[in-house]
Specification:
This protein is mostly helical. The protein is built from eight helices and two strands. Helix content is 50%, strand content 3%. Helix 4 runs antiparallel to helix 6 and helix 4 crosses helix 8.
Amino acid sequence: MSCPICEKRKVERFCPAKGEKICAVCCGTEREVTIDCPSDCSYLISAHRYEDGHQRSLPADTPLLDEKIPQDIVYTQQQLMAALAFSIAKFCATQPAAVDTDVLAAIHALAQTYKTLSSGIIYEKPPDAPLPRELYAALIAFMTEIKKQQAERAGAAALKDMDLFYLWVFLYRMGLLRTNGRPRSRRFIEFLRSQFPQAPELKREESRIIVP
């Protein structure tokens, strides 16, 4: 039997996403590209383990790479950073179709927005795609509420837009390094989920692996 994808090579591996066997080459080249792999696929897990030992390099023209993040910002804003990460993971838990590129597009847009706000100019440019735009709006609403709560607390230090910009830049770079660059990768999303193992809101999707 020939592979249903390439229609050339012999089938070798059962693909849980397709519910049938495919060849090893197509498994490797189409994984997280044209094939929407479930996170518990054994071949996907093995590939991710390999990637963990071979970190990819980022192109020099990658957005926000030239921004210098103050060394203390991540430590002084640890609680807020965790809250942002949790908010992203929670959103993705309700949107099974979300992939790393969606999250990165929203974070990049947020970084640009808060950099503009820090200069005193109110100008927003949300992502064009529906899912990143929805995540962007959810995170903007979350930060607006955080700022409101701080303003209502006597003696609370005001959260600066520039500090938020640096936090978004930090999350963006983290995402770039955690994802593998494939169009359907969810490595960064899975990493964020793993930081809150006890949260019922982030319950992993039920396995889509079909026993052949």
